[in-house]
Every structure is written in C-alpha cells, then in structure tokens.
Design a protein that fits this description.
The model has no long low-confidence stretch (mean pLDDT 76). The strands form three sheets. This protein has a five-stranded mixed sheet with strand order 5-12-11-7-8, with no helix packed on it. Strands 1, 2, 3 and 4 form a four-stranded antiparallel sheet that branches. The chain has a three-stranded antiparallel sheet with strand order 6-10-9. Helix content is 20%, strand content 29%. The termini are far apart. The protein is built from three helices and twelve strands; from the N terminus they run E-E-E-H-E-E-E-E-E-H-E-E-E-E-H. By secondary structure, it is an alpha+beta fold.
Length: 228
C-alpha cells in the first residue's frame, strides 16, 4: 500500500504566515493488469476477503498541513480625491452586488460540546478562524489544553462549553471573510430537589383524590339504581 498525494490547496491567509493542506489517498498495489496506478483502498474492486486479509480497508487516508506565506493582492487605488460614480446603461444590465457574508447562530448549553461549521470550508479548502481580533492559530489553540481545536474538515470544536465562549467567531480564506458564527450559551435551569419532591407529592395527592371521586360517583350511581 502507498499514499497518493494530491496538490496543495491555496494558503488560508495572506500577508502573514498561514496554512495550506493537501490530501493523501490510500492505494493498494493490486489488480495492476487492470489499474496500472493501483486501486484505492476503499474501492469495491478489491474483494472483501482480500481487503480483510491484508488489512487494506483499515489503512486511512491522510491529510498534510504545511506552513505558507502568500502576499495579499494589491488594493485598487482611488483616482483622485473625489468619489467616482459610474452610470450603467440599460444595455449593460444590472450590476452584480457583492455576496453577503453568511451568518449562523448556535445555542449551546453549558457543558455541552459545540461544533462550528464554516459554510465554505472542506477537506481541501482550509480556513482560519478568529475570535474577535484574536486569530485562533495553533499557538492560541494550545492555550486551551485541547478544549478548543480544529478538526480535519476545518470545523471549530469547543468541548465543555463555558459561559466565556459566547461571542462571534469568523472563518476566513486568505483575506476574504466567509462567514460569521455566533455562539449563545444557555444555562439549563436547575430544579430544586425539595421543590421537585413537593411537586411529586402534590401530584400523587391530586391523583388519589381524582380516583376517589370517580369511585365515589360510580358507587353512588349503583345505589340509586338499586333503590329505584
């Protein structure tokens, strides 16, 4: 078995050190007369008995993360001090508006595990996350002792959510803002054990009175029918 590496993705940040990723797919050197490059380890071309015998299906695909540095594209310079206004003719059609930044809101209970998904992120499209003005780089994530981390699909995961985790998290690709994800931490109301016990006792008393009233009514109707 061997790993077939794909090409590097674009750098997820510009102007400063960023990260890039590439995928490595597992291949098995079998059926070479039909497939000269080999067969993917999870392909159904290889019989299940053969995959189990050589543990082919247990070999996982890989993901490599590398450092990168890419200059930001130059910003267009304004022509003069006055703002330029362009008039569109009907023949040119309606100008396209810039795409709005996607927004999501997550409601998380204290102590639960949160999973923040960037809509444009993926395995081959690495993004970076920021919390306000703080960039959640690997150095910043290490400060959480593993409670906050980014998985292989660029999803931001927060274990054991705390009240201080509430706020806005932004995912970026290079210098473009892709989405803003807001976390609202909800505290589950605690029920007093004494109040819970009293409520249960009252419920049992009401149930007993209701059953007694029904039985009393049934017996009374039978006595009236006997007298008549």
């Amino acid at each position: 078995m061997f790993t077939e590496w794909g090409s590097w993705s674009g750098c997820n940040h510009c102007g400063e050190p960023g990260e890039r990723v590439r995928l490595g797919l597992c291949f098995a050197r079998t059926r070479l007369h039909e497939f000269p490059r080999g067969v993917p380890c999870r392909s159904n071309v290889v019989p299940y008995s053969e995959r189990s015998k050589y543990s082919i299906s247990q070999r996982k695909d890989e993901k490599m993360v590398g450092a990168c540095r890419q200059p930001c594209p130059p910003k267009p310079r304004p022509r003069g001090t006055q703002q330029l206004v362009r008039t569109y003719a009907l023949s040119e059609g309606i100008p396209t508006l810039p795409q709005l930044v996607k927004r999501r809101v997550y409601y998380e209970n204290i102590g639960d595990n949160a999973e923040l998904v960037c809509p444009e992120a993926g395995v081959t499209h690495g993004v970076r996350w920021t919390n306000g003005s703080i960039s959640l780089s690997q150095v910043e994530l290490l400060k959480s002792n593993g409670r906050v981390w980014i998985d292989g699909l660029s999803r931001l995961r927060i274990d054991d959510v705390k009240r201080s985790d509430a706020g806005n998290f932004t995912c970026w690709f290079q210098d473009e803002k892709l989405a803003v994800v807001m976390i609202k931490v909800v505290e589950v109301p605690k029920v007093d054990k004494d109040m819970e016990g009293n409520a249960m006792y009252v419920g049992m008393v009401l149930t007993f009175l209701l059953v007694f009233y029904i039985l009393f009514g049934v017996c009374r109707n039978r006595n009236l029918q006997t007298i008549q």
